[in-house]
Amino acid sequence: xxxxxxxVSTGRHPxxxxxxxxxxxxxxxxxAVVSRDEGxxxxxxAKHSAAIPYDNFDAMLRDDAVDAVYIASPxxxxxxxxxxxxxxxxxxxxxxxxxxxxxxxxRMIDACDEAGVRLxxxxxxxxxxxxxxLRELVAxxxxxxxxxxxxxxxxxxRGQITPPARSGLQAWWxxxxxxxxxxxxxxxxxxxxxxxxxxxREAIEVSATTDATPDRPLEEMVALxxxxxxxxxxxxxxxxxxxxxxxxxxxxYGSLGGxxxxxxxxxxxxxxxxxxxxxxxxxxSYENDGIVLYTRQVxxxxxxxxxGTEPIATGLxxxxxxxxxxxxxxxxxxxxxxxxx
Length: 341
Known about the structure:
Blueprint: E1 3-8, H1 12-24, E2 28-34, H2 38-48, E3 52-54, H3 57-61, E4 68-71, H4 78-87, E5 91-95, H5 102-115, E6 119-122, H6 129-140, E7 146-151, E8 153-154, H7 176-179, H8 183-199, E9 203-210, E10 221-228, E11 233-239, E12 250-254, E13 257-262, E14 272-277, E15 281-285, H9 292-307, H10 315-334, E16 338-339
Parallel strand pairs: 1-2, 1-4, 2-3, 4-5, 5-6, 7-11, 8-11
Antiparallel strand pairs: 7-12, 9-10, 9-16, 10-11, 12-13, 13-14, 14-15
Helix pairs in contact: 1-9, 4-5, 5-10, 6-8, 8-10
């Protein structure tokens, strides 16, 4: 029997990425879709072959055909919806960021543990083959002692100093109470998670500068420095005020040389791998594909459900990223380095 998925939200990301990925993944079917607007739910269901449209989250949870719930609602709703889903016996894949507070992340982890269901977080960049190769090189010592790693993701529109206000289904991105932070929630959390994933290390110190102001509290640009437990340094530059930004890359530098995946931080599989060390010269390029990273994410989650193992990005991974996000906001506000130990 295929795993029956419920999709919570009919926004752009579920529509363009996750619904097609669930349909493309082996052993998956969309059993339900939930939207506050019944008409949107019906349109989404018809477009993506979802069995039943719902305008009520709790009603969806009573559907025995639903095995797993993909949550892509506004960030502030993630924790409550994930806890309810777990208590209903549903596995949970929650879109990043996992939640707005570390306490809520822990609440989600505890609820899923108590219910014996899987909890995953939507960090699709972990499935990119170039990032997996960098992780392997770091773990095997192929780059020597790692000293510096960078994950940068910039974008923007020419002629716009600040992106325009959003409307419709995207309006919540401009509400501090619902989103929790600004551009960092869109791309910065991916950069932070990718650094942790590739390095296999935890950050112990955070220092950040943003362009947020009292009149405009949601930042559009962030420069972040992390100190990891082994002494290596991580750097992140991310935001929405850099049109034609040419460095949405993952780079790792060690005592034997360096490696990176250029142009790989995106919502599609793309980029080129370049590794140069004393012993190794390696190059690879990756064909553009609109949903393959997300399809791999769904496949991996389905396998975790079937085997009772952990997803590729766990609740603890989401919690660690939330810790760094909270520290980023505090550092930017106070001008201090924040200790995570």
